[in-house]
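When time allows, look over one protein, given below as sequence and C-alpha cells. The question is which stretches look regular and which look disordered:
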Amino acid sequence: MTATPSPAFGILLVDDEPAWLRSLSLTLESAAGITNTFLCQESRDVLPLLEKGGISLVLLDLTMPGLSGEELLAAIGERHPDVACIIVSGVNQLDTAVRCMKLGAFDYYVKTDEEDRIVSGVARAIRMLELRDENRAVKSRLVAGGPAHPEAFAGLVTRSRAMLSVFAYVEAVAKSPQPLLVTGESGVGKENLVRAAHAVSARPGPLVSVNVAGLDDAVFADTLFGHVRGAYTGAEAARRGMIEEAAGGTLFLDEIGDLAIASQVKLLRLLQEGEYFALGSDQPKRLRARVIVATHRDLAADEAAGRFRRDLYFRLRTHHVHIPALRERKEDIEPLTRHFLAEAAAAMGKPTPTPPPQLAACLAAYPFPGNIRELRAMVFDAVSLHTGRMLSMQSFLTAMGRAKPCPAAPPPNPFAPFERLPTFAEAARFLVDEALARSGGNQTLAARLLGISQPALSKRLKHAAAGNPHNPGNGHNQGL
C-alpha cells in the first residue's frame, strides 16, 4: 500500500544545487516524516509550478542564476499570498535576513544551521498552514449548515442542528494529521462518528480500533508498538503493533480517559515526536496514522484532579467535538425509533411494525441515561416480542420502569405546514369549508362539527356569499 503523502499540501524545495536539494528532502523525510516534497533546480520554473496549485510552502535559496531568491520571494508574495516561504540560504547576513522578512518570508535559516533547527522551523510552518486551512474549512462548513458529504454520516440518524454542526466540524478537520478528541456520554454514538471521520478523510489505510480501558502499561505498549522476537519471555516471533497496522489510515483509541498515567507518557511522546520503538528494538518507526481518541469521562475535570496529564490533554484536544446526549436532542428520538424499528424487523425477518400513537410522547418524556444505545435495545426487545400489526407498549413501559401507560400523544398542529399563519377570517373559512365537505353539504351536521348553532353557520355563509367574510357573529361563533 502506498503511504499517504505528508503533509496534505505540497512543499517545493528550490535550489540550484541538486546535492543540497536531495539532502534536504531526505532530512525532512527521516527526521519529520515529511514526504510530500517537490524539487526544483531552476528558479524560473517556480512560478509556473505554483500556478498549477497544490503547493502551500516553498523552501527557497537566495543565490541562484536567473531569478534571485529575493525576486522570487517578492513575486510569490504578490501572486500567491497564501503560499508561505522559508529562506534556506548560504548567505549569513543580518540585513539580508531583515529584507527577506519584510518581503513576507515566514522564516530565515542558514544552510550551516543545525538540521534539527531547520526541520523544526519547517514543521512549525506546516502546522501554521494546516491550522489556517482547517479554520477556513470549519467556517465554510458551518456557514453551509452541514457536511458536504452527508453519505459519510449515513450511520448517524439525526435531525438535530447541533449534530449537523458536529458533522460539519468533523468533516472540516478530517484530513488534519493532528489528533481528534471525541467526548460524550456512553451510548451517544462516538464510535459511529469516528467511523464517519475516517470515511470522510479518504485515507487509504484502515481504521484500527483499540479499547485502552483496563490495559496495564506493558500490555498497552505491546498492543500499540508491537515487539521484536525475543523482546521478552514468550516473544517467540515479531509482532506488528496497532500503530503499524493503521499506517496510512486512522488509529482509534477508545476510553482514553481510563489510560494509566505511565501509558499516558508513552502516548504523549508518540504524538509529540511522531515516532515510536517496538519493544526490544532500537530502531525508531514513524507514526503514519491519524490518531482519534474518545472518552465518556470529563477530561478537563480529570486533568484538574491530576488523573490525566495536562500536556497530553492539550495535545489531544487540538481538535475536539462533543456529542450531545439524546435527552438534549429530543428531535432525534422519533427518526431513530423508526430507523431501529426497520433495522430490528429486517434482522428478525418480520414486517416493520407500526408504532402506537402514544409511543413518541412516552419516549420524549424519558431521560434516556443510556442514550441511543438504550433506545436501540428498547426497540429491538419490543420487535422481538411483537406478534401483531401495532407494536405493543408494554416492553417500552417495562424498560422505562413505568407501571402506567404514557399520556396520549398531543394532536398534531394543523398550522405547522403553513409558512404564514392564516388570519382568523381565513381560518374560519377553512373550517367552514372543511365541515361542509365532511357533512356532504348538510348545514346542521356541519354546525355540529364546528360546535356552533345552525343559524350562526347560516348567517356566516350569507355574509361570505355577500362578500363580507368578516362576520363578528354571536356568542356561538366568537373566534371563528
The two ends are 73 Å apart (CA to CA). The first strand starts at residue 10 and ends at 14.
